[in-house]
Design brief:
- It is a single chain.
- This protein is mainly β and 119 residues long.
- It is built from no helices and 11 strands.
- Strands 2, 4, 5, 6, 9, 10 and 11 form a 7-stranded mixed β-sheet that branches. It has a 4-stranded antiparallel β-sheet with strand order 1-3-8-7, with no helix packed on it.
- A hairpin with a 4-residue loop joins strand 7 and strand 8.
């Protein structure tokens, strides 16, 4: 099992910045992709940003140029720097870690951290 602990959510004004962190512990060997998803009330959970163990990144179009994902493999920690925040970024942000074992993908999720952006 992998445990993911998120931190760094909170309140920001439009145009402001927040930084999220997510630390993985437990049986974290073999995790390849880590990333962030978000879910606003009444909406599905959507991908925000992903990063592979080699540093390849992928962003949702809505956050490109504003958010930056990074990863410290030695600490099993992933970060999300969020700049130029908009009210539409308000959501619960979930950390995700994924690994594939014998062609089966396993996903692990954090408990979620609230991000609220006021206009």
């Amino acid at each position: 099992q992998v445990q993911l602990v998120e931190s760094g959510g909170g309140f920001a004004q439009a145009g402001g910045s927040l930084r999220l962190s997510c630390a993985a512990s437990g049986s974290s060997f073999g995790i390849n992709t880590m990333g962030w998803y978000r879910q606003a009330p009444g909406n599905q959970r959507d991908m925000v940003a992903l990063i592979s163990s080699r540093g390849t990144t992928n962003y949702a179009d809505s956050v490109k140029g504003r958010f930056a994902i990074s990863r410290d493999n030695a600490k099993n920690t992933v970060y999300l720097q969020m700049n130029s925040l908009k009210p539409d970024d308000t959501a619960v942000y979930y950390c995700n870690a994924a690994r594939t074992v014998l062609a089966t993908r396993y996903d692990y999720w954090g408990q979620g951290t609230q991000v609220t952006v006021s206009s």
